[in-house]
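Sequence and structure are kept together here, with a separate record for every protein. A complete record is shown below as an example:
=====
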Amino acid sequence: MKYLLILLILIGTIGVSFALESDEIILDEPFLITLNQTAYFDNHDLVFSRVEDLRCPSDVTCVWAGRASVTLVIQNQTQSDTIILTTDENSTSYVDSYQIHLIDVLPYPVTAKDISKYYVAKISISKINNGIILSPLKQFKSGVKSELVSCKSTLVLVMKNSNGSPSCVKSETKAQLIQRGWAKDTH
């Protein structure tokens, strides 16, 4: 038990020491960022602002493994987005033309030690190919505001009247949907 605790503290210390030497992120390569650290990529600031660790401590037997979530703030000169990524099903989000993926949160919790000062997130950021536009639903679920959803060049954006969800349709279909009361215009 004692050796396990020492090993976990050592892993956390090593993780912090290998966190970003420079604050410049290299796209498509995983990197480590410490809690409250700011890093930079393509005229964007990335801040690891918060962690919530609900994972089962390594020295306890649990029914559920749990999850950790990190809050990241991504800013450029015109906008600021806050995203929450988790170590389970919500590990990827999209901001502007970037995919942000949470790989892991270190160190793993133990009951006998407060590790809150040692958290490091392992993250990967990739630029999305400009020719590829995600579906409106995927954009919306990843945190893009309904009115900011991007459509393919041949389609236009409408909002569903019943719940405000975005949809991309042909311009002639847009007029029919508005006339039938299914959709409202975004302008």
User: Anything to note?
Assistant: The chain has two domains: 2-127, 136-185. Helices lie at 2-17, 136-141, 171-179. The chain has three helices and eleven strands.
